[in-house]
Amino acid sequence: MINATNYLEKIKGISFSQLPEHLQKGHAYVQKATENGSNWNAYNNENIKRVMDAYFGKLNDHLSKNPVKVKKEQTQETEKEISPSVKSTEKKHAPKHKQEVIEEEEDFSFVERLPDEIRFLRRYLSLNGKKKTKEDLLRFINTLHKAIIEKKIRKASPYAKQMEYIQDKLLKTYNSMNKNITAEISDKIILEFKALIASEKVMPSVNLIKRYINLNGKYGVKEKAQKLMEAMTKAYDKNKITKSDKYFKVFDQMHFNLSNYIKNKTQKILAIQPTELNGLNGFLAGCGCLHDNEDHLNGIDEVTGQEETPVINPGVVSSMDFKNVQFKTLGFVGKFRKLIGDPSRGFSAMVFGRPKMGKSFLCVDFAGYLARNHGKVLYIAKEEGLDMTLQEKLKANDVAHPNLFVAEDIPSDLSPYDFIFFDSVNKLGLSVNDLDTLRANYPEKSFIYVFQTTKDGHFRGANEFQHDVDVVIEVPEKGLVVQNGRFNQGGEMRIFEEDYKQAA
User: Fold this and answer.
1) What pLDDT is stored for residue 279 in this prediction?
2) Which helix (H) or strand (E) holds 481?
């Protein structure tokens, strides 16, 4: 039986060019991993050992069914196959797209998340032939040390030797550097590390799920959704994802959601229901699909020295405790506190009024106030666009500020901003469900929606728009602003009068 111990001896006289393609690739894999049989250290790695043993088993099985007469003298063809300096006849049978690893599923491991060590192996190989500064190496060293301290890389890791090698090499090079260098990595290390990298691949279903989650809550991603749905269909048709996949039910639901989103012309934002998203986050926890640096919810600190209170139901709070809860507000002052009150973070408001009555003037001024005092603001001016009219409104009352940003359309990522204005919801084509999705995805952000009105002065859109916001602001006549909401009932003011312009 052929194994790692007798491989080189047993394959003498075997013409691999006459063997099935998967055995040719298996032989090529062993040659690369062992530096043409001169160094078998890579076989000590659990993942590489598993791949090689699988190949040895297939080779033994094939030879038992198809005996090969081994020649006493090695042929010229065999010498060519073994020698790395000569183009082997195997390459004539290689697939059009070059593969450095065995292609069949059983020849490498499918994992939900690539180990952190594999990521560091890739990063280390990427240094080869590149000009690097001392600061570049220091960043790499610090990142590696952080992973070790956080126990993402452990001594028991199957890649511990490689991590130790990388660390020692980086430190030695860093300490000896007096100027910028061009990094050079030996061919031996390149071959060894590439073999390790090729031994594990992320499950196709997990890769597609990650792409799906990245589209969640994004505006105008129908083209990306279409491409994702096509990729999912292709993966299923080619049996890369089957019903036996542990995530097939989720995969199937994703495909259904994407199909509905693409067909629905009124839906501008891909919406994943909160319960569905929680489920995705649950089974993907630890697979590297979500950002590792995201803040997690902290539990309530244990209270000591008090009489133990029996738990009634999760989420149920005693009225005696609740009455003493202090809610944090934004701290509005001046004219906007008189109009709106003092809202908490994550509030929502709608503004509507007939054209030329002053609703956009009010909103731009409000955006400037928020930028000066409370955080970063994005004003999406879909209705008027980035034209001279908007410029004049920004100049009025000195609204322009480094924290105030303007755009004609909704960017794919709203996370950099604390307050987002949509002027107008109608022009952007947003539905009630779209706005619900935005609030669900960005619960800490405050949204201000501007609406067009009908001829009789009512806002355009379903009544749900008004029911779902904290503050309703109407401009019923030129310059008059009337507000009703949670934080201040019945606020009112005139926006074109001198007192308004001078107010804080």
Assistant:
1) 52
2) strand 480-485
Instruction: Give residue 334's region: left, alpha or beta (phi > 0; psi -120 to 50).
Output: left
Give the DSSP letter string of 317-361: --HHHHTT----B----HHHHHHH--PBTT-EEEEEE-TTSSHHH
pTM, two decimal places? 0.52
Q: Is 442 left (phi over 0), alpha (psi -120 to 50) or beta?
A: beta
Domain ranges of the chain: 7-107, 111-201, 204-284, 334-502
Report the C-alpha dihedral over residues 279, 281, 285, 288, rounded to 10 degrees.
Answer: 140
Architecture of the domain defined by 334-502? 3-Layer(aba) Sandwich (3.40)
Amino acid (1-letter code) at residue 68: V
pLDDT, one tens digit per residue, over 142-178 is 998 888 888 888 888 888 899 999 999 999 999 999 8
For residues 208 and 251, the answer to whether their CB atoms sit within 8 Å is: yes
- Give every strand in the sheet of 491-494, ordered side by side: 404-407, 377-381, 419-423, 446-451, 348-353, 471-477, 480-485, 491-494
| Residue 287: how many other CB atoms lie within 10 Å | 16
